[in-house]
Fold this sequence. Notes:
Elements: E1 2-9, E2 13-16, E3 19-21, E4 28-37, E5 43-65, E6 71-91, E7 94-112, E8 115-116
Antiparallel strand pairs: 1-4, 2-3, 3-8, 4-5, 5-6, 6-7
Amino acid sequence: xxxxxxxxxxxxxxxxxxxxxxxxxxxxxxxxxxxxxxxxxxxxxxxxxxxxxxxxxxxxxxxxxxxxxxxxxxxxxxxxxxxxxxxxxxxxxxxxxxxxxxxxxxxxxxxxxxxxxx
Length: 118
């Protein structure tokens, strides 16, 4: 199976008043391609497409303890995306092709500390 994300958009993610996750920390892929094949010749080529306006960031706090025992909170981000799936392939030797609206989640970036704004 191969998965490829492309056409990334970078935006700042507001957390709470005065704090954001900086632009570029958690890129949103507007296109995701998945290709899977079997030894029997069956395959699926799946393309998922979304837009920034159809995607919502879901910040997750990640408590961490440093070497001195201090607790700090960093954040990861899951993008909740609504978009369109285009599916083509062959299953049990029979061709398939369809388009459907759907949902995808994407975990983006590494855990980071928020940027405080004044």
